[in-house]
Each structure stands twice: as C-alpha cells, then as structure tokens.
UniProtKB/TrEMBL annotation:
Belongs to the Dps family. Residues 16-152 form the Ferritin/DPS domain. It comes from Asticcacaulis excentricus (strain ATCC 15261 / DSM 4724 / KCTC 12464 / NCIMB 9791 / VKM B-1370 / CB 48). GO terms for molecular function: ferric iron binding; oxidoreductase activity, acting on metal ions. This is Ferritin Dps family protein. It comes from the Bacteria. Gene3D superfamilies: 1.20.1260.10.
Length: 153
C-alpha cells in the first residue's frame, strides 16, 4: 500500500522526486519562455523552446510512473515541487538572451540533480531507474548544448 505523502521515504524515490520537480519547473519555465520570447530571434527560439518543452512534457510522465512502479506516490502539488526543486520560476520580462541563460542554468541544475539520482539508483542496483535517468541526462545535455550554441557570438 503506497504511503500518503508527497515526500517519498526510499532514497531512490526521493531522488526521482527531485528529478521530477526540477524537470517540471524547467518544463514550465521553457513553456513560458516559448510564449513570451521577443526580439529578432523570436521564430527560432519559439520553435526551439517548443521542441524542448514537448520532449520534457513526455518525460514527466515517465519519471512519475517510475516512482509509482517503485511503490511510492509521485509528488503532484506546487508546494511539493517547490520543496523538492532547485529551479526557480521564470520571468516573462527578461530579454531573449536572459531567458536563454536562465534555461542553460536550469539544465545545468537538472543535470546535477540527475547525476546525483543516478548515483543513488546505481548504488541500489535499480537498473530500470538507471536506464531512465541515463536517457534523461542525455536529453538535458543535448538541450543545454543547443541553448549554449545559440548564446555563442
């Protein structure tokens, strides 16, 4: 029987919950910046942000379902995500380059969260979680690369 809490007890589920919270907050920020980006790069950034938030949206379900498969409840409230996440909300008034820098920082933060969760999953010999986290790590490294390349002079 699952516990009625949004803060899991097991180390792997706790780390997966942090990954889910960081992923959700970065998804929201990316989607919001998709709506609000302005300037000469509008079209290309609007499309890149859409591609990235769409990929992240699908991953949220996979992460939450892995938590459930391990017998815990997935966090689902804004308060739970706020307590678990290291990624701050976006700001629609920022310039396109400021948005890009914030998203790059968000991916760096999430990559660190993923690496920590990966270590915990490896120590627990939880191969399905290791596989999931490895795929997510690759995706966020690719998103970071695309954003960083866009910021280059």
């Amino acid at each position: 029987m699952p516990k009625a809490t949004e803060t899991p007890d097991t180390p792997v589920c706790l780390e997966l919950s942090k990954v889910l919270a960081d992923s959700y907050n970065l998804y929201l920020k990316t989607h919001g910046y998709h709506w609000n980006v302005r300037g000469p790069q509008f079209n290309s950034l609007h499309a890149m942000f859409m591609s990235q938030y769409t990929e992240m949206w699908t991953a949220l379900d996979e992460i939450a379902e892995r938590i459930r498969a391990l017998g815990e409840l997935a966090p689902m409230s804004g308060a739970a995500f706020g307590n678990l996440s290291s990624i701050k909300e976006g700001d629609a008034t920022k310039s396109a380059n400021e948005m890009l820098r914030e998203l790059a920082d968000g991916h760096k933060t999430l990559i660190a969260t993923l690496k920590n969760a990966l270590k915990v999953a490896e120590e627990a010999s939880d191969d399905p979680t290791v596989d999931l986290l490895t795929v997510r790590l690759g995706s966020h490294e690719k998103h970071l690369w695309m954003i960083s390349a866009t910021l280059e002079d």
